Prior knowledge:
CATH superfamily of the largest domain: Medium-chain alcohol dehydrogenases, catalytic domain
Oligomer: single chain
Shape: globular
Helix content: 25-40%
Order of helices and strands: EEEHEEEEHEHEHEHEHEHEHHEHE
Radius of gyration: 20 Å
Largest sheet: 7 strands, mixed
Low-confidence stretches: none
Number of strands: 15
Structural class: alpha/beta
Number of domains: 2
Distance between the termini: 13 Å
Strand content: 25-35%
Amino acid sequence: MQRFKALLASKTETGSNIAWTELGRDDLMEGDVLVRVTHSTINYKDGLALTGKAPIIRKWPLIPGIDFAGEVLESADPEFKPGDGVILNGWGLGETHHGGYAQLARVKGGWLVKRPQAFSAAETMAIGTAGYTAMLCILALEEHGVTPASGPVLVTGAAGGVGSVAVSVLAKLGHHVIASTGRPEEKAFLEGLGAKEIIARDELSGTPRPLGKERWAGVVDVAGSNTLANAIAQTKLHGAVAACGLAQGMDLNTSVAPFILRGVTLAGIDSVMAPKARRVIAWERLAKDLDKSKLAALTVTKPIAEVQALAPDIIAGKVRGRIVLEVD
């Protein structure tokens, strides 16, 4: 394949333009592994990039898409050989390096993770950066001593990509999961994933107090802002909060009270630049602890040609679970 189709974002005199086009291998960026992309997905960050709601794309022209799965075609990295199934999440993909919304990608071998045998390429994109981030959050909670015996775990934005995978994995691990959502119509969906309680988003989105009643031992938060502040204020003694998103906002109106009076830990989760060893552990745990039947229940498959139409919906919180994009 010398020429390939790609979604290309370009700067124009009036702003930017994103359109499908045909490129050649010489248009790809530097890297030591060439991959035939078979599947991608759309995450909240992709929605921001495609709608222009945030300056995600920082190098122009650029192929968006922060994830892809595919098959190695050529490799100068000894870790990989033609035919290997691989996954890429983050590392500036779709921000400063050509991303996954194309039939071909050339990237650094150090960015790639071999696809676990437990998953098909499509399943890895059903997980995507959202699900991989959810697993990083769960690892952080475990490392800070949160176990099923510690008490409930709160998941905010529970019907979204990160949230739905977090609910599913935590439930399988034996945690009592409290799912927070702004979509009460998703109650049955969340209970099907394993949530034991459903609470309204409004319970956590208002003006926070320094401390509240102790309700949960751990938190996976995708919202930031007041939601994160309220979640911290209601975390139990020696509990932990994993923060990985900013759907409500980047601000954090809280105090030191939960940290010095209850010993609460706030763990920041970076999925973009996480070390490769950490990524491998996360994917190994997903292969072990994510119920594939539940993954299927929270996944919808679409052709990649529809990705631009999906972007406003994911920003508006209208997308349930995960979307797999078929590149071929």
